[in-house]
Task: structure prediction
Amino acid sequence: MINPRPSFSPASRWQIGFDMLLRTVLVLAVVVMLNYLGAQFFHRFYMSSQTRVALSSRTLAVLSTLTNHVDVTLYYDTRDQENFYPNILALLNEYREANKKISVRTVDYVRDAGAAEKLKVQYNLPAATDSPNSPPAKDLVIFDCGGKVIVIPGEAIVQHKLEQTAKDDPNQKELQFRNRPVLFNGEIMFTSKLLALASAQPFKAYFLQGHGESSLADSGQFGFAKFGLELAQNYIAVTNLELTADQPVPMDCNLLIIAAPTVPLVDSELQKIDKYLAEGGRLLVLLNYASIERPTGLEPILQHWGVNVLADYIKDPQNSITGQDVKIRVFNPQTFVAPLTQLSLQMILPRPVMKVNWQNPPANAPQVNELALTSETALLAGDPTAAPRRYPVLAAVEQKPVAGVVNRRGNTRIVVAGDSIFLGNYYIEGGANRDFLSYAANWLLDRQELLAGISPQPVKEFRLMLTQKQSRQLDWLLLGALPGGVLFFGWLVWLVRRK
Result:
């Protein structure tokens, strides 16, 4: 019997094995080289400008200095079509790509109740069973850096504008409105929070009390609880201050806030404030129409610094919703309010805040800029004979440094507003009021990294406007005609094959 010849000789098997090993090594080498080249030289590209997320140079500079690990948690309903979750996630992924010390995760509070409850406990988020004044946590971005936590409400990331919707039904009598998203402030807010987390300690602001000012703890309509919360989100710690007895403005005061005193300040208090400004202090003053009949005493000090607050208030019926509010749409593009040019402020009976026109300005006079103005149809309530004109309602003062002179607190900066109600709990949500407070505080504290180089991104909407009749026709087309057409052609194919 003849033994069958083996299919492969030992030499052939060794040759095939070596060939397979060599091919595997070559494939692995190519994969390793491609990963190396990709890590070194690859830059992502985008098929559409709508999906492109490009970080500003200012953000990249802040990210380059970040050395601590930051955990970012998106507490969102991921299937909500109107909360901008995809945009926020895409932006944060760019932050993570720029600095690997940033980690990003999502907790869907609708579909992952267990993880949502753990997160509520971890960060002490309000629950649905809390008091009615404390709504349940919803759509939040949480920054956590070694126990230092900053929580950003999702509603603060996107700026909306109230606009009238088109009438679908000609018989419709009532006007309908919607909040249209106009600006996406994600990069501004996220970069500022990262900068705050990287700071050793927050700036310190003092809130003057003792003259009928509303409290930072007051959550009522005219209180300043949301005002204080906005400052806290900008990493500014706020403490109440009473200038009684020999108590001066503390040396650790980075910002003094005087918000709508209803009782005049006494001379000793005014002298302390005047001294504080002369030493290079920073001051935010909010006045309103109530102080017209009873001056606060701050008016001469402000006039000394180049700001004149008129003893009257402004009405502008053509730019008002309630008759008392005034829409402010004109902003000085050369100042820190330039990012608000596409938005508006909603102020309540504001007083004119004007630059003093000195005939013979003093030596080293401070630089005064009028920040925002009314429309050309504005009127003074106390002077009905005055022709309509634009009136400034906000002003900023800066004392430039003097050669050879060093102030104890820096260079004086002042922001004066002719209204305080627009930053109270009720109206701070109107227009760009909240954004103005943030910009003003950061300018006063000379945090230029939060003002320059980052702009709000306009929101582009692509909407298909249909009447109710057109919508019904589209429903019939999608639910009836298309499936019916498929069934009809299927029936024809069956009929042909049967024959």
Notes: Residues 201-450 form a domain with the Rossmann fold fold (CATH 3.40.50.880). The CA atoms of residues 58 and 449 lie 7 Å apart. The chain has a mean pLDDT of 83.
